[in-house]
Structures are given as C-alpha cells and as structure tokens.
Protein 1
Amino acid sequence: MKKLLLTASLLSLVAFSFISCNKKTTADSTESVQHVSSRTIKIGYAQVGHEAAWRDANTTSFKTTFTPENGYELLFVDADGNQEVQIAAIRDFIAQNVDYIIVAPVVESGWDAVLKEAKAAAIPVILSDRQMKVSDESLYLCWVGGNFLKEGRDGVKWLESYLENKNLGSEDINIVDLQGTIGASAQVGRTKGIEEGIKAHPNWNLIAQKSGDFRTDGGKKAMKEIIKEVGIEKINVLFAENDDMALGAIEAIKESGKKPGEDIIIITFDAGHEAFVRMIAGEINCACECNPLHGPRVAEIINTLENGGTVDKIQYVDEAVFDQSNAAAIMPTRLY
Ligand code: AHR
C-alpha cells in the first residue's frame, strides 16, 4: 500500500471523470444585492463565529452585501461557536424589530423556543449555511447552503476512483475521520458520507474518528492524539471535514516524519484558497467545495419577498470537486 502511494503525485495528473471543472463555482453575482423597495431593510445576522477561513469569507460576503448603499442596515453578531449567544442575538434582533433574521446555526437542534418567539413577532427567519432540526418547519422561511451529505459522498467517490486508478481498489485502506463541530450540519452530512463509504467497502477501515471543531489548532491536536493512539504507519487516508483542520493535521503529520499527500492521502472540504495552494504543493489530494458566498443569495431571497414573490424552502448551491490534476488551472478563477 505504502509503496503504491508513493506514485500518488504522478498519478494525480489523471483527471477523474466526475469532477466538474467547468461548473460555475460561485453564485457570486452582485446584480441583485441592491433591493428595489425605497425603505431601509433592517437585517439581523447571527453568525456561527470565526472558526475557519470559510467562515471569514462568509462574514465578508454578508457585510459587503447588506450595506447602507444597497439599502440595508445590518446588525451582525459573531457568536464564537456558542449557541446560547446566537439565541440571545435572535432575541435582541426581535426586540430591535428587524425586518428579517438570518441565522447560520452552530448546531442543528435546540432552536424551537426562540424561533417561536420570532414567529410570534412576525419576523421571517432565513437559515443560511447550516440547517436546523425543528418540530415545525414553518418556524423558518427557507434555507440556503451547501449539500453536506453530497459533499461527503463526493469525497468518497473521489477516493474510490483514486484507489481504483492505482490498482488499490481491493487493498486494506485505513481511514481517519477528523470531524467538525459535533451536531453541526456540515459535520453530520460529511460524517454520514464517509461512514456510508466505509460500510460499502469491506476493505475500508475507520481506524479513528475525532472532532477538531473545524479549527486549525483543533485539527492538529486531534491528529496528534490519533497518531499517538493508532500509530502514523497505520494511517492511509485522512478525511478532514474542513480545510482548516486539514492544515492543522498536515503539521502533525509532518512532525511525525511523514509526507502529507504522499504517505497519507488527504481529502478536505471547503476548497478555499489555501487548499488549492496545498494541492498544487502536493500536500492535499482532493478538496470538495463548500461555497461560503451566501450574502448575494440571501439578498436575492429578500428581494423576491419584498416584491411579493415566493421562494423555495430548501435551496442547495452548486459545488464542485477539485484535485491535484486541475488545481493549478482552477485556482486563478477562485474568489475565496
Ligand atoms: O458550515 C460550513 C462549515 O463551517 C465549513 O465547512 C467550515 O469550514 C465552517 O466551520
């Protein structure tokens, strides 16, 4: 297995048929951000925090979309990964009588009570990025974000093709899953994706699964612990549920004397700028996209509503898969 993995960098030049390089990778039009009504629209956005580069890009997308020039007043709260702070922020938005509440929920459960308060105040709630599990779907108006389960399955499909192309399809493959914040949709979907993949392949073994909380330091710490527990020699594949944790884990792998991307196949999620840099450097093998640029999408939804229109309840955004075979060509077109 190890010997064959050493040929990874050469074989990575092979393009995988399901990778959609020509796909429009950003829904980033700014055409619809300026709303048509004459009043200033007051928005409250309860953001998860600032745990990852993805999150910073998402925050920037909202702050540059919901501006006074575009006809908006934005109340922005960074909850630093704390659901209680988000709940308090939503209550404050209700007290300030905002026109719309936007939430990127830290975790999926525990929202019913505060959403009922927003409903009683007749303030529409739009979910962005992660989803919520609620007792009554009418408690929120709609959701827009990435399809996390599909992202996880895309990572599995990429691994299947990669191993097949190296005649490793029937080898024993030991996989480590670095999970995101437990209970967050992005973790739930991506973990389900890899667990399904492991079930479907009797020769794939999940040898460790640990949360790094979507952070670089969390990824490094979790990876160091895993290396200590199972031994670096045993690890063939790292499935890192976001770029930032992959970057931390790469440090831990290097400190153990191994070459990330060669000795250990690395699949990551988000496909931000640094993931492209590392794919080109040969340290990350595959990056499954999660697009953070939701500001214009949410503005479009609000515009439609302001004009008396209706919107789809669930709105998935297009996302692609990239690897070392196309990273250099694609990188100049990326916006985050
Ligand atoms: O919910 C989206 C996820 O949140 C991104 O993958 C991750 O980087 C962020 O923390």
Note: The mean pLDDT is 91.
Protein 2
Amino acid sequence: MQIKALCGALGSEIQGVNLATVDGNQMGVIRDTFHKSHVLVFPEQDLEPAAQVAFTEHFGPAEPHPLKTRATVDGFDTVLILENKPGQPGAPNDYWHSDISHSEVPPAASCLHALTIPDGHGDTMFCNMVAAYEGLSDGMKALITPLRALHSGMATYERSLQSNDARKIDPSEIKPPHAHPIVRTHPKSGKKSLFVNPHFTAGIEGMTDEESKTILDVLYAAAIQPENIYRHRWQPGDVLIWDNRSVMHYAVRDYTEDMPRKMHRTTAGGEVPA
Ligand code: OGA
Ligand code: MN
C-alpha cells in the first residue's frame, strides 16, 4: 500500500489495496492511518454493497439510519443511497456536521462510495476537530471542558422538508435533544476533540441561548479555519471513510438536479461520547 497525506490539516490517500479483499495486516495499517488522519480516501475501488458493509464493519457494526431518511439498496438496510438526478434533487448536506450527533450513541465512522459524480462538482469538505480543540487557549479549554451541549434531530426533520429523496419524517419521531460533552476523548487515539456542530447542536446545557451562541460561535470559527480543512474532489470509484468523533464535514452544493450524483453510504456504530 502507498499512503500519502492529502494536505496539512487531515486526510490520507491509500493506493494499492482492494477493499473488497483487504486482509488483516492491511486493515491494521488502515486503522492506524485512520486514527492519525481522520479521513481516508481509497481511489478506484469497485465495492459491491456487501463488500462496503464488510469494510465498514472493521470500524464498528454497520447501522441503518435511525430515522430511515433515505432509500437503501435492495436487501441492504445499512447501505443508504444518496442520489441527485433530474426530478429528484438530492437532500442537501451543505452545513458543517457530524453524522447523527443527536443520537445517544453517535456513529464512529461514515463511508461513502462514489458511483456517479458531476465532474468537478459536489466536493465534500472535512474539518479537523482535534486541531480545532488543540488550537484553543488554555482559558477556553478550561471553560468548555466541563460543559455538555445539546444535540437535536430536528435539523433532520427540517431537511426532510427540503428534498424529495428523503422520507418525510414526522416531528413526533424526533427524540428530545441529547447532551454530549463538548470536549470528547477518542477511544482509540486518546486525542481530545471538539464535539459540537452548527447543524445538530442546539445549545449548551445550563446556558441561555445567547450565552450558548456566543461560545459556540467562537468554537465554530476556530474549527473552520482554512488550515483545518481538507476539500475532497470526488472521482467515480472513490471510497472515503471519515471519523465522526474527530471531524465535521460539509457537502458543497454547487450542482443542480440535472447534474447526476450518486453515492452509497454506510455507517459504523460508535460509543457514548466521553
Ligand atoms: C452524508 C453526507 C456528504 C456528501 O452522507 O452524511 O454528509 O458529499 N454526505 O454527499
Ligand atoms: Mn453527513
């Protein structure tokens, strides 16, 4: 395998491995690189849904989406279809987020396999939340370390109103907001990261909206500095996996429904953030 850093912020590209037949030794190297780089890109893969599930399960059990917001591949309720095509604009993901952070046990990792890409459009950005935490002052670290933030699934409900590739969710299906520590420690790397995002984080426990917003805005601005970001330009065949515990991501919405884009997404279960 050849491994190369994608930029100074995060991300590694790994060539010379077929993910459909990856062995235990290769997985050891892949996992180590994942914990250092947070995002891995494997170009030119040809992964059938069953093989994508098997690869994902090296990072945690493959999980269906808790709100069943999207179509899935026949026979695979853990393989979500993200599709933008004429008459069916794909659901937007153009906001910084960590997948399903409103869950009690948010996913460890998400994996996208690019099938159809509008050439040069529909990039995805990733932001290093370990670097975001480490760059804060000692004073800000001390302020936020004991705090918990509330994460709400209402954002997913609101998004379901904006697209027609997603099932219409009823607001009664959305659970009350869930609190997670603002600073979490990665169970494998031991690194601390910021675990808040402007999409699902609704506020800070025990604070007014105004106080929450003031602090969260400082954290988001620190996080999304250009130096903390990798922007992935997709090629069909790419498989990309990211660590939801240590990155936020943002899908750049610079395409229209007449520019087909199709991905298969799988999600690996994680642990209660601590
Ligand atoms: C997602 C997501 C990004 C993209 O599936 O969770 O944010 O670029 N997708 O499609
Ligand atoms: Mn996402």
Note: Helices lie at 24-37, 49-56, 129-134, 138-144, 154-160, 209-223.
Protein 3
Amino acid sequence: MNTSTCIAISTMKPCCIMLVGCRNTLIFGFQFPKCNHTILNNLSKSQLRHNRVICGCSDRALGFRSTIGASRNGFCGSGSDWGETRGFRGGCVVDRRGSRGALGVSVASDVRHHSTSVEGRVNEKGFERIYVQGGLNVKPLVIEKVEREGDVGNEKVEEEEPKVGVNGANVNVDKSRSFNEENILTREREVSETEKEAWDLLRGAVVDYCGNPVGTVAASDPADKLPLNYDQVFIRDFVPSALAFLLNGEGDIVKNFLLHTLQLQSWEKTVDCHSPGQGLMPASFKVRTVPLEGRNGEFEDVLDPDFGESAIGRVAPVDSGLWWIILLRAYGRITGDYTLQERVDVQTGIRLILKLCLTDGFDMFPTLLVTDGSCMIDRRMGIHGHPLEIQALFYSALRSSREMLNVNDATKNLVAAINNRLSALSFHIREYYWVDMKKINEIYRYKTEEYSTDAINKFNIYPDQIPYWLVDWIPETGGYLIGNLQPAHMDFRFFTLGNLWSIISSLGTPKQNDGILHLMEDKWDDLVADMPLKICYPALEYEEWRIITGSDPKNTPWSYHNGGSWPTLLWQFTLACIKMRRPELATKAVALAEKRLSVDRWPEYYDTRHGRFIGKQSRLFQTWTVAGFLTSKMLLEKPEMASMLFWEEDFELLENCVCSLDKSSRKKCSRFAARSQLVG
Ligand code: GLC
C-alpha cells in the first residue's frame, strides 16, 4: 500500500508556508504562483535565532485533502526520511523573513466528510481496542481556510483600537475577536510595568512552526549558555501561557499547540527498542530548522519531540496527555470554539490518552500507578506509586473527557468506564488520602497486621510513620491530602500542585477543599512566606535526602523540587482561591510575587525555607513564571472567567458505582460511603 500522505499548506503572502509530509509528495493540479516576500516585524526570539532562511518557493495550495493510507502513525511520515531525522518531518519550507502575525492558516480535519473514516470500536470489556476502520488512526486533514494578510479583519467591519499597547505588544486589548467577546478582558485599565514586561517576555518566548505560533519555550535567558532542554516547548509549561493567551483573546496559538502536539502523539516512539503506548504525549518538543534535502539554500521546520528518551533520567511524561486534555477543554470553554474538540482526530487523541490511563493492570487501586518523576517533579523525589499530583490531573482529565467525548455506540463503554473510574477515584482519595487532626490521631492509634476485608488500617500503616514535624504542624481545623499512598506507606509531605488541583477539580469533598485552603492560610509562612509557593513541604533532609533523592545535588533541602518555591504555582493557587471564594488570599500572594519577580528576572524557582533566595540552579526568564503571574492577574481581574476552568462537585458521580453491592452486604459499597463523605 502506498502510505504516502501529502498535506500541503501554503500561502502566497507574505511567504510560502508548506507542510508536506511524505516522501512521494504528490501535489496534484496546483498552480504555484510566485510568493511575495515581505519582511515583517514581530519575530519571536526563536525566529530571530534562526533568521537565516529565505524561502525559495512560491506556493499556494488550497483545499488539499490527504490521501491517507495505512495509519495515523504514517501521517506525514512515511518513507525513509522517517528514520533519518528524529524530527517530525511534516515540516514546511520556511521563510524566516515571514511573520506569524500576518497570516493565519487553519488546518482542520474534515470531520463532516470523514465522519466514518475513524471509528472507535469497543470490545466487550469496553474501550481497550480503539481502532480505525481502514487503518489505524487515520488523521484526515484538509485545509479549512487560509487567511491572508488582507483577509484578516475583512470579515469584521471595524477593528477597534487596542486599548493598551506595550512596545508593540498588545496587552489586554479589546480587538475584534474570533471568540466569546464578552469573555475576554475588555475593560480598559492600568497595566503595571511588571505586567507590561511580562507580556513582552511571554511574546518573546513564542515559538513558531511554519510561520505559525505553536508554543512557548520553557525559558529564554539570553545569558544561559547551556539551556539543556529549556529551549523546548514543554507541554505542562505551556498551560499557563495558553491560559494567558486565551484570557487575552488569543486562541490561535493554543489551537496550533493542541493540533501539533496531537500529531506528535502519533510519532513512532521507541526507547531502546521498546515502544511505549500510542497515546503517550511528549514531555516537550523543539522546532528545528534543517536544510531541505536536495534544495539548495532552503530550509524546513521540523518538530522534534521528546517522549522521555532524551530527558534527564528518562522520565515518562505521564502528565502531558492529562494536561493536553485539560487544556483542550479550557480552549473550548474560553473561546466557545467547540469544533476543535469535536474533530475526529482530536476525539481519537483523547481516546488514545484515556486508553493508556484506563488499561487494566495489576492495580488494586483506582489511582494511576506511575514511576518517579512522571510529572512537574521530573526527578527522583520518592513520588513513584500513586502520587497525588497525577491523581488530581487524572481526575481533571477524566472529567474533561466526559464533557468532550462524543457519545455514540463506539464510545459508550468508554464513557461508562470514565464514570466508574471517576467515582472510584474520588472515593479512594477522599477516604484514604485525607488527613486532619482527627485522622492523624486515628492513625496514631492504628492496630496493624489486620487480615480481613473490614480492616480499619487497610494499608497496614505503622503509626511510627507519622513524622515528627506533622504532629506539631497539623492545624486544629483544616487538613490536606497526603502526597502518596502505597501498602504500608503514607507519604505525609504536603504537595501543593496536587492539593490545588484537588480543589480545582473537586476531587476532594467541598469540606476537604475548604480545609486545604484553610491549612494553606494557616501555614502561610511555610507554604508562601517570601515567595509563593512551596512545591512541597517539608524538604527531605540528611539521610532521607540521600536515600530518597539518591543524593541529588539539585534537590538539596529547600531547593528546586525538594521544598523550593515555584512562582508558577501562583495561577493554580489563584484559581483554587477564586473557586473557594477566597480571592483575597490570591491577591496577597500575587502582590508578594509582583514585588520580586521582575527585579529577580523571573526565576524558575526560589530556595531556602522561606523562599528568600533565587534558586541555586534556577533558570531566569522562565516562561511559566511569567505566564503564571499574568494568568493570576487576569483571573483576579475577571474571576468569572475562572469558572470556565474549575469544576463543582458532581453529585451524579456519587450515585455511580459498579460494584453492585448494597448497604447490607458484607463488603462495603463505596457509593454509600461516598455520600457520607460529603456530610462527614
Ligand atoms: C524542570 C521542571 C519541569 C519543567 C521543566 C521545564 O525540569 O522540573 O517541571 O517542565 O523544568 O521548565
């Protein structure tokens, strides 16, 4: 079978942009008039860095529908090129003189015409076999629309003047928007100097692929001689950038990001001859500009993903797919453009991620079992097993998917599996991860070695595990969700991201969510202090540090992942505070950050017990620090936007239980217990 697939996207003005993804490229019947090279400003840093390519072609191809063969794996990537270059050779000939701002290319699956070409099939147990009729995961692409410079704005009669202009970058502008105008920040207001600087930095961090913005680099410190992978677009790091753009009425970059990372999901991944699951999303990707074979002086943009095969420690990016789903939902809710999530390829992408997460394994628990370093904490920190952060993101992704999946015969079992998992997961976390004064006192008096189905100490936790610091630290009121739970092991450290996402997603009960925020307020000096927010509390010290981190010099006590303070966590804190009707807490934290971030050149993290010093090995001009600050500011200014991003308690989930045990049964059904959690 001829597996060549051709996708061509090209525009005439101001330069050509082509996306050709096959060895035997067939571009039928298209006339390629000469392109008009126009030098435009607004180049991102990455563009400037690679500003050496001049496009030699002059193409314009519209309405191109791919002729797709065997699989989505083959999308843009069949032929020998595939093996030669690690990058995603669905590249384009690039003209680095072009401007991303000047044209918009929207590429979309033709859902209407291909609605039967991708079909999920479920086996009896559910969704395990998701396959595509006529080939695995075909991803049909057509050009939906190519907007040229002149077209932009023609649809709108008048384009309003930007209200605030910062060095050419429009901040909080009220431009004609392509989406929910009432949702965008429309009020004219004073933007602080720090915010202006932040917008400039955020725009400067934008990475282009084929002339279109697709993400933001992790850090852009011009003085950093060894950026390692900080010059890449990280999936998790892009989320606050995406939200800042969305809240500012700029949806294109987010849409491009979602679609390009979706393509990367299909990348054939192998690490030492082992192939991880098809649904795996990369931790990060880089846009490389490489010479075009056989085309003298011409270059193409290539996407080069990292699925963990290059990452330090070869960590598996479990959170990437979860973040991708969460962002997809946010995009739909903020822009009102639900067509993206309805696309066949996007629906398939969601299902592939879920397939990885919901596949049966040896697990006894509904929580997701992962290796160390599989999330924001991407180094050894003793969080392998069932870390809270992953569970909270998993829960959020499941709730997002439930909202977004088209329900039909092919997906109904998957949707049922999602519902079951959601209720089992929330029960498990609410029941076993929650600690407060009362619960710690119970653990303190636990009997051990109980063999029976109605054991009280189900995980055989030895009371001596309760750490010294916790006995004094736990407040009289309030509490939190512990970091991890395994047989005979409770990790009592407080992990901020997991607790915040439990509030945001309603993984915790309303009372627990309230209790977490109460604890954070009570323990302000430990968790916020001079710089919001501690990634975890307390730090591992001495022998514990040596054994648990493997003597990691980057994760020394009160530094980096080991009790360092990460300003990027501010936006999630803000979201949680707004949800719990405590915006004043977020305002206080944002004010603290605003005093220092710009002066300190936007560090990645801070060190010491109270976050007083810029982190030992901290990157400067870290994008998610910048974006987290901006997103917090915008959410506080327009708190109603926050409601697009969080979830309220879902009472239906509490009714839902697969175990078919009733109240009188010898074994307890979690359904009844789940309801009692609410009042308890
Ligand atoms: C560090 C962080 C990780 C982040 C990356 C890029 O590795 O631990 O969470 O995604 O830097 O900023």
Note: The CA atoms of residues 454 and 569 lie 39 Å apart.
